[in-house]
Specification:
3 domains, about 30% helix, 14 helices, about 575 residues
């Protein structure tokens, strides 16, 4: 192992040489007074993806309290805190040193949620490992070695010391984040025993800055206040007790006029599967971990899904028991999305009329009279939603703005008026009795069967052209996987591109290890999660990149299901 002084000498010797000469420092390990540095990959030119770098701080240097070591939720919260601290300090100290990304020290970007990531990890013994990128300085294609030396031997140590060593951190802020995560997780764990699918603490700030900015609205936001009839109090290990809105199991409608906050509340429930950072406004808004947003998705591909609970006797006798299409309609895509979510383990369905197919959601009495059931292949969701709860214990939360027929099948109704919540369950039931819908239930007396699917390994082909493996994440909703270009804009519970990169790696992993064409998808999902639980991120391959983040089986399955090459 070389020293930091020897690294500086090497960089000085490279000054003025062609950029490819930077390969001299690749795959080398350098000893600093407080940490070791390894350059795991050197970029090909100053405009290419920056060089991948890893630092490792031994326990004595990191000096983290033992309570923050793995394996624990506290370690995840602490690692997230360190990641944000590193990003903040690196932005302050990085400087433009030449062409392209020269001089930039960047760690993987993070969102408002706290996730287990590969960017910063805390080991069992308190070792801290950070993975990030460095733009090695150059002017054109000539190495700026005299600028690279202080960047790696002076600036980088300052960043590491200020962001990864406990004595330099805001200990109170770190403790607050760790305790917040433990409180939120305690709330989530308490949902089932209280018969709830979600909880939102009084005082939560639900609106966001904009569709492109997930931070809380800074002015004019109305803090949430639960109606007394739906108010529950739950215990937390650090805050004692927290009081707020409890959304019960069963079928819940969110109603109200336009622009009064219905969809905003639903989005909070969508994101309640994650823990959030202090100051987010949704820190104590939690949902069942298996809650899934379901919407229509015109044009998506479907591979071998049994959608007979919702769609049957199609024209030309096309089977819906093993349904495949390259261009699904709105109703067909929503039926497939729902059946796929159930296959992957969904326990709570989140729907919004605004993002649903109208004919999937329901048919009123007049339309039934004009187009009788024998002529209509769709069994609408309104006739399946109670069956899902009674037969499969799958709850539903639905934003309903126009279809009052759902009053007949709902257990609870929450109205929003000027962002204030009201329990209108009694009024809903009275209206349902006063104005009978007279519609006839369709689709039978039970939900119907779901069929297991068996993904075929050859359908997860990674090759594109001459590249044996082609995987590129464009954003949180765009993935290129081999010849597949996947639109994931409807998979709204993916919140970071880091998650999608990890899912892409997991797709490659299961193709190599778990897919033999004989295992049903739910078994594949279980095997993948078991391997990640036992071996950690290393199960997906080493060396680890710095831009992976944890994901649910539900989102993994959603990506897999949208591969246009999928055979199942």
């Amino acid at each position: 192992m070389q020293t930091a002084h020897e690294l500086a000498a090497t960089l000085h010797a490279l000054d003025g040489k062609s950029y490819g000469a930077y390969r001299a420092i690749a795959h080398q390990c350098y000893h600093y007074p407080q940490f070791t540095l390894q350059v795991e990959r050197v970029q090909s030119d100053p405009f290419a993806a920056p060089s991948a770098v890893r630092v490792e701080l031994p326990p004595d240097s990191a000096a983290l309290p033992a309570s923050l070591h793995r394996p624990s939720l506290r370690a995840v919260a602490a690692a997230d805190f360190l990641t944000r601290a590193f990003s903040r300090v690196a932005r302050q100290l990085s400087v433009d040193l030449g062409s392209g990304n020269s001089g930039m020290i960047v760690i993987a970007p993070v969102s408002q949620v706290i996730l287990d990531r590969t960017a910063v990890q805390i080991d069992l013994d308190g070792t801290v490992i950070a993975r990030f990128t460095v733009g090695l300085p150059a002017q054109g294609r000539r190495i700026l070695g005299r600028q690279a030396a202080p960047l790696l031997t002076e600036v980088l140590p300052r960043i590491v010391t200020a962001s990864l060593c406990y004595p330099a951190l805001d200990a109170a802020a770190l403790r607050a984040q760790v305790e917040l995560v433990e409180d939120a997780e305690a709330l989530r764990q308490g949902l089932h025993e209280r018969g709830l699918v979600a909880f939102v603490a009084n005082g939560s700030i639900l609106p966001r800055q904009s569709g492109a900015d997930d931070r809380p609205l800074s002015t004019g936001a109305v803090p949430l206040r639960s109606p007394p009839s739906l108010e529950v109090t739950l215990p937390c290990p650090h805050r004692g007790t927290v009081t707020g809105l409890g959304i019960p199991q069963g079928v819940t409608l969110i109603v109200g006029g336009g622009y009064h906050g219905k969809s905003t509340l639903l989005r909070v429930l969508e994101q309640g599967i994650y823990n959030h950072i202090p100051g987010d406004g949704r820190e104590l808004a939690v949902s069942d971990r298996q809650a899934v947003k379901i919407c229509a998705e015109d044009g998506r591909s479907i591979a071998g899904v049994n959608i007979t609970p919702f769609i049957n006797h199609l024209p030309r006798r096309q089977s819906t028991a093993n349904f495949s299409t390259a261009n699904a309609s709105g109703s067909t895509s929503q039926a497939a999305n729902l059946c796929e979510a159930l296959e992957a383990g969904a326990r709570v369905l989140l729907l919004d009329e605004d993002t649903s197919a109208t004919n999937f959601m329901g048919r009123d009495r007049r339309m039934q009279a004009l187009i009788p059931p024998p002529q209509e292949p769709i069994s609408p969701f309104i006739d399946k939603v109670r069956q899902l709860y009674v037969e499969r214990s799958v709850s539903t939360v639905l934003v309903a703005g126009s279809n009052g027929d759902y009053f007949d099948v709902a257990d609870t109704a929450i109205a929003l008026n000027d962002y204030q919540l009201h329990d209108v369950t009694a009024a809903m039931r009275a209206i349902a009795q006063r104005y009978p819908s007279q519609r006839q239930p369709e689709g039978g007396t039970s939900f119907g069967e779901l069929s297991a699917r068996y993904p075929q390994p050859q359908s997860l082909e990674t090759r594109r052209g001459r590249r044996a493996v082609w995987v590129k994440v464009r954003s949180t909703d765009q993935l290129e996987f081999g010849e597949n270009r996947i639109d994931l804009s409807a998979v709204v519970q993916l919140v970071e591109s880091n998650q999608l990169r990890a899912i892409a790696a997991a797709l490659i992993y299961v193709r190599q290890h778990d897919l033999d064409g004989q295992q049903p998808l739910h078994t594949v999902l279980q095997c993948l999660q078991a391997d990640l639980q036992q071996f950690g991120w290393s199960a997906l391959g080493e060396p680890l990149p710095g831009d992976w983040a944890e994901f649910r089986s539900l989102e993994f399955a959603a990506v897999l299901n949208r591969l246009r090459s999928l055979q199942a």
